[in-house]
Write a structure and sequence with these properties.
The protein is α/β, with parallel strands linked by helices. Helix content is 38%, strand content 27%. The chain contains 11 helices and 13 strands. Strand 8 and strand 9 form a beta hairpin. Helix 1 crosses helix 11 and helix 5 runs parallel beside helix 6. The two termini are 14 Å apart. Bound molecules: iron/sulfur cluster (SF4) (2 copies). The site of one iron/sulfur cluster has 13 residues, from helix 3.
Length: 288
Amino acid sequence: MQQITIVSGKGGTGKTSVTSAFAALSEKAVFADCDVDAANLYLTLTPENYREEVFPGSKTAVIDQERCTQCGLCEAYCRFDAISLTSEGFQISEFSCEGCELCMQVCPHQAIHMEQSMDSRWFTGNTRFGPMVHARLGVAEDLSGKLVTLVRDEAKKIAGEQGRDTILIDGPPGIGCPVIASITGTDKVVVVTEPSKSGLHDLERVFGLAKSFQLRVAVIINKFDINTAMAKQLERYCQKQNIPIIGKVPFNTVMVDAMVQQKSVVEYAPQSNVSREIRRIWKKINEL
Ligand code: SF4
Ligand code: SF4
């Protein structure tokens, strides 16, 4: 079973449009949207027959004001400055609390307990191209890496059960924890970039990350013709780093039109120059 992760150094490069086109071209794949902060692959793959599950999130300390004697011990011990005295007694900021439970241990009156967030969700459904797993991280939740791992594990489980040979992962933007969780252990990392200064900068960052995990990387330059000089600069960088450029997708408004119609571009405009190039790239990815 091969795992292919599509990433970009930042949002707005057309990564999800390209991924949904790959999904439409795949034959026996499971799709995992690992952008748990802002999943959007489902908008074009439109899964049905949803199963929704709760992902138990981080824990936050809560003070029972009736038991609290305002001794201030918890405030003194908290290393994250999450506890402060207000006109309503000692309060804990849910944004600063790291859930270490120390305050609960030191409180002499057992006035503190932990509450687990139940705001995050993960979903499985069936798209017209195969099963899909995605998730939604609750507001101010910080377990994105764990949720990404869960999405990938579920996709792997479904692939095993249904005899599917590919897991196509739509990775989150950036180079943070959820990106690391999306690329570790995958067979191929495909970076979608665009011809701009920030595109080059983000490619450098994401390539550095993938290299540190010794992963095989290939690059797609999306909308390469909107700035050919910058596209050449990207090519020179890739050549220097020995990264194969497996495709250069031209700018075409059919990409956006397809999304508006909740379709992948290869379904919406199969004869367009964009679709021709994406079909060629998909073939190349499978040959890598
Ligand atoms: S340690 Fe317990 S009793 Fe003391 S201020 Fe904190 S919550 Fe209140
Ligand atoms: S659980 Fe830890 S971080 Fe949160 S308020 Fe208590 S001591 Fe501070």
